[in-house]
Amino acid sequence: MYRSLSRAHIRSVADAFSRSKAHEKGQKNVAERMESSWTVLNSEGQSYFRLKGESIIRSAQAQIVNALRCGERDRASNLLSNVSKGSNSLRSDDFLYILDYCARSPDPLFVMETWRLMEEKEIVISRRCYFLIIRALGKGGYIEEAFNWLSFLGGKHQTYPILPMYNSLLNGCAQMQSMTHANRCLDLMEERMMGKSEVTYYELLKLAVSQRNLSAVHEIWKEWAKYYSPSIISLRKFTWSFTKLNDLVSAFETLQQMVALVFKGTASIKQSAEGQFRFSRLDIPVPSKIELGIRRCNMDESGHYLSCSLSGDCSERIEEPDGKNDYIDVSCIKTEALFSVDKNLYRPVEADNDSRCLQLFPAANQGSYTDFGIENSEPCSGGFITLKGDAEIKPLMKVLRWSFNDVIHACAQSKNAELAEQVFIQMHNLGLIPSRHTYHNFIKVVISERGITDGMKVLKAMTKRNLKPYNATLATLSIGCSKNLELDLAESLLDQIVESQYLQPFNALLAACDVMDQPERAVWVLAKMKQLKLQPDIRTYELLFSLFGNVNAPYEKGNMLSKVDAAKRIKAIELDMMKNGVQHSHLSMQNLLKALGAEGMIRELIQYLRVAENQFCLTNTYAGTAIYNTVLHSLVEANESHMAVEVFKNMKYCGLPPDAATYNIMIDCCSIIRCFKSASALVSMMLRAGFCPQTCTYTALIKILLVDGEFDEALNLLDQASLDGIPSDVLSFNTFLHEAQLKGRVDIIEHIVERMHQEKIQPDPSTCCYVFSAYVNRGFLSTAMEALQVLSMRMISEDENILQEKRAYFEEDLILAEGLDAESSILELFKDDENLAAALLNIRWCALVGFPVSWLPNESVWAKRLSRYRLRRAC
To answer: What is the Cα–Cα distance from 230 to 237, expressed in whole angstroms?
Structure first.
């Protein structure tokens, strides 16, 4: 695609050429005008010019360029107009500085304005000026206009286009990803028998990369290698292209060729004053008469295939020098592609049978960087390092390091830690000092494949080299720590970030705070975000509602004070959302509704449900089944059964299909109204909708039967679930134990406890509470203590061998230890394992009241009696 130049009110190129008087007398004056300047034009299109005499408007050109740099286009136009009025002996050289700036910027509109003035003054335009005009148009996105210039220039011998002009147009096509114009340019080159230079191949390479066409890159590589010997710059370009297009195998092989080329001592590049690297050899074009194997493809703009060819007989027609030093921009380019490669790539490379190359190419099993076998060692002084002087080797090493960085970055994208580590080791052996960019990509791949621990080791090695990590590196490490719930380390890494535009690590830490239920740490995260002036996104607000939406502690009901505080928090978060122009997402609304439900704020819960319905309907979406499920669950928990039924009816009326969770919630609701018939109807609807009953479905049905005292029917339903292959869980059995304890049915309790033991279902604190309370209520205090100890032992493990292994530590240091330190140590365990902590407290309490501790729960008299009772019942 290209943009139109109609905004500039400039005549079309065709009309301009037809009316140009300068072209009518150009043949007569061209020799005189061309002698006034000397222009060097290389094959890539970069140039340097110098005038034989002092230009009378040199300062005026500088003023115009300075005005353009400052964005003062009107002043630049006025200055340009004054230049045309102040002199009648203007030459094309008097505009070179302006045109050169417009070509570099690029500024296609001002370059056309300059060209129009040159035509009005009847100035003979040199080939150099034409090149700069074409370059400005191509780089500025005006591909069609640039192509028209090339087409019309072919009519005059003195302005006949040279190959760098076509290369410049191809460069613009690559930038705009316009294959249509690229093919038209190649057709024109073939028609005029222009041939190809090495830069032409590079521009075709960029086109192939922009079209994501790996086969074309391989074809270009094959044809290029027929006519040009490898150079450090060309190999770098191909290495980058292969990494960009998912071919890590070819990228690694090309990288090894770069290393071998430098080792042989034949590679040589120079650096310009602008910091760009260039060839030290001539770029001689390939004549079109040579049959090239790269075939043209008539592909569309989507770019499913790309290959190009030039064929036919022709001779080069180059009037001005174009074989000077070729400037190559080898700035480090970040790749975004994903890779899937063979990891067994690292192998020795032979170079002239020189034994020294063996130490430059270590085998794959020679070591592991993450084991830090080379952390404090000196890099290998490879043979090639002494082949050249320091001034000559530095540019080579810099370019080589950039290619190593490309490969490591590609490894990070493909999560190929093995190859990344091998490439990193090779850098060390070659004496290539890793940069911060190298470490950043290496840390990314190490974290993705080997975890945050190894990533922190690499960071430590980086800091030993006195390299300050990027903010992006710290952010990546912090995200890994947050995922591992290492909150202290994640917070410490974020605290080192001074300036950052990375919101993801802060959201990751907020998510970890949510998982660990640490809202106080989340306050610090918000303060750090404010310090860095990071604007929250919708993910941030989703987490804020989850962290701060409800005030009461888990497992506690809200009171008047907590409800008022929760309402204030929710309002503050929503006001901040409005301030930053962020609207609710399904998840943020769902988290808000969960918070209201946790506080028992039923009226506000229904109000926000209406808000969710209206908001999502206005955007042609709907609130979603998940949002309704959240509301239904909160209503059932609050025993608002009638309101839940109304919401369920409205949900179906709106056309939202209930899912399995919806049916299970409503079946549980039936236990409130004690209606097994309604629950059975819901099960029937659930089956017709294609959802199979789950463990929670049977638990809800059993709960309804138990509320009515139907223990036998409930046990039959439990047996039916087992026959259907639906496993029971501790919640199902606790439902039996809870109702049996309330109704004094010790026989049911003992049956359920033994069944849990047979099915290897470990008890939880609720199990112990129900069984202990049942025996105490019946006056069986000794049995209650024995049952409590047996169930607590089974909470630790059902395997008596494991219990014996843990006995020494638990009994001596926690259960029988004196002082408050033992209980404090047990309470610390609640952070990681609530059941273990509760079991140890129960056993310690039994020991304190004088009950002997037994680490063989199955040998207990109570446990043996329950086992015999089950066998008799089975018979």
So the answer is: 11
